[in-house]
Design brief:
Layout lengths: L2 E6 L2 E10 L5 E9 L2 H16 L11 H11 L5 H19 L9 H13 L8 H20 L26 H10 L6 H10 L3 H6 L5 E2 L4 E4 L2 E5 L2 E5 L8 E4 L2 H21 L20 H14 L8 H13 L4 H8 L4 H11 L1 H25 L3
Antiparallel strand pairs: 1-2, 2-3, 4-5, 5-8, 6-7
Length: about 375
């Protein structure tokens, strides 16, 4: 099937073949009014996808379900994990509840009733408030696309008020507990991985995706440029979670020494496996050099921490512990955010001042002390 995009005065117009009419003539359709070539091309891509799937529909007659399916099929540059989440939200929640509604007739009250039904668990077990918000985010993103492509006159998802997501106290270890764990796992084959997670705040996938070529022992730094992701049962290497996830972090001297010892042990494994050893060059991997499943890293962590007699936290709790202790030690929000690879420093501040309110208390005391000292200096100097 073919389609074209053409400039039409100040706007753009698309034309496409929708197959054949009942009398055998060509069914050609068009739509104009797009503000940019990019918007027009995106709309054309969705229409051609509908044609390819045998859904020869006029845009005015399109249902919500048909739009969501064509929108998802037209998405090209998204992560596999993101696509899987979109697919789940659309298949499990959105299409069963609002899929049969005409897209142009969709209103906010339709969405209100849908979310009430989802929260009640009318069709399946009721999800958490956080999951409902993620479902809504998928729908809002899709309908934003429909609005930009002139399929709807407004986005009803923008008029929906959801229940606020409850603030959970993040489970972390104290510095004493963390030191106890690191001592307990020092001789473990993956002990270096847990030390790196605890002292750098790396994400689990970033740790499993780290390569020896990313570690500069002379400069004492590691470059985070990829992560190991899971999509179903498949593992794949991908870019970090956000643009700021690509970063360079400094390593402390003890961690560098632990990494060197870990490399020596890995070299012995490489010699034992010989030609069958996987040549990916991963810092943390299975004995044969193949990728280490992130979930295996998590399960082993739980087993080690239980044997150490420590309070139960999930592996991601090491990242939360790192950020919390860094802020408590006086490290600036900007530095902590950069080391964590957060997309915004405001997210770091919002997340971790909740975890450790005393950080905000320290700031208040420092500010008050500075003003008090300035007042004393003025009194001594007699300056106006």
């Amino acid at each position: 099937m073919k389609g074209t995009v053409q400039k039409y005065g100040p706007t753009w117009r698309v034309r496409w073949d929708a197959g054949l009419k009942a009398d055998g003539s060509r069914d050609q359709r068009s739509k104009g009014g797009f503000g940019s070539r990019r918007e027009a091309e995106a709309f054309l891509s969705e229409m051609l996808e509908l044609v390819r799937r045998g859904q020869l529909l006029d845009a005015n007659k399109m249902t919500v379900g048909e739009f969501l399916e064509s929108w998802l099929a037209s998405k090209r540059n998204i992560r596999a994990t993101t696509r899987r989440a979109y697919e789940g939200h659309i298949r499990v929640h959105l299409i069963p509840h609002i899929g049969a509604l005409p897209l142009r007739s969709l209103r906010a009250d339709h969405l209100d009733r849908m979310y009430d039904a989802i929260r009640r668990g009318d069709r399946r077990r009721a999800p958490s408030a956080a999951t409902v918000r993620r479902i809504h985010a998928t729908l809002r993103t899709a309908l934003n696309s429909a609005y930009k492509r002139r399929l709807i006159s407004y986005n009803p998802a923008g008029q929906v008020e959801l229940d606020p997501e409850p603030i959970h106290q993040r489970d972390i270890w104290t510095p004493t507990q963390l030191a106890r764990f690191l001592e307990h796992c020092a001789e473990d084959r993956l002990g270096a991985a847990y030390r790196l997670l605890a002292l750098t705040g790396l994400r689990r996938g970033e740790c499993c995706g780290l390569r020896w070529s990313d570690v500069d022992f002379e400069a004492g730094r590691a470059t985070i440029s990829q992560q190991l992701t899971q999509s179903g049962k498949e593992l794949a290497f991908a870019e970090p979670k956000s643009k700021r996830g690509v970063r360079v972090i400094t390593l402390d001297a003890d961690s560098l020494a632990v990494l060197k010892a870990h490399r020596a042990g890995q070299n012995a494994e490489r010699l034992a496996f010989g030609a069958t050893y996987n040549p990916l060059g991963l810092v943390f991997c299975r004995e044969d050099g193949s990728p280490l499943h992130p979930e295996q890293l998590s399960r082993h962590f739980l087993a080690l921490s239980a044997k150490a007699g420590l309070p139960r936290i999930v592996l991601h709790g090491l990242r939360h512990s790192h950020a919390t202790h860094a802020l408590a030690a006086g490290v600036s929000i900007t530095v902590v955010s950069n080391r964590l690879g957060h997309s915004r420093s405001s997210f770091t501040a919002d997340t971790y001042t909740r975890v450790l309110p005393e950080v905000d208390q320290q700031a208040a005391e420092l500010i008050a002390a500075m003003v008090k000292m300035a007042g004393k200096d003025q009194a001594v100097s007699g300056a106006p």
